[in-house]
């Protein structure tokens, strides 16, 4: 299966595999679930499609602190993005720094919240890379 996947991926410009931590399987899953990137108006609409947005619980001046991620969205894309974000937090220093920052900020469910916020950051990167068809170049440290 890996050989067939590599062969099929050769026909598609591989911008996502240029990110250290995202291999062929995650890249193929993300690209397959997204389809044509041009059908999304921006990274926010892609995040909503993936189900990586939070519901609003507010009334008048009250705004709840404990917000839940929406239940809708493409569950397969959400899975691939969260797993790729988990891999990135181990391989990429920028994503690791971001994950640790969000982990320290969270009061409940620290790992889950930090991971979903890291996946949301990954959505912005994926959208930009696929839209511009460029390779990822990590920021200088």
Q: Could you describe the 3D structure shown?
A:
This protein has about 140 residues and is mainly alpha-helical. It has one domain (about 1-55, about 65-130). About 55% of the residues lie in helices and about 5% in strands. It contains six helices and two strands, in the order αααββααα. The relative contact order is 0.17.
Summarize the entry for a quick read.
By secondary structure, the protein is mainly α.
Low-pLDDT segments, ≥5 res: none
Rounded radius of gyration (Å): 16 Å
**Total domain units:** 1
Number of helices: 6
What layout of secondary structure does this protein have?
Elements: H1 2-9, H2 24-34, H3 43-50, E1 58-59, E2 62-63, H4 75-91, H5 93-105, H6 110-132
Antiparallel strand pairs: 1-2
Helix pairs in contact: 2-4, 3-6, 4-5, 4-6, 5-6
Keywords:
141 residues; globular; two-stranded antiparallel sheet; 3% strand; 2 strands; single chain; mainly alpha
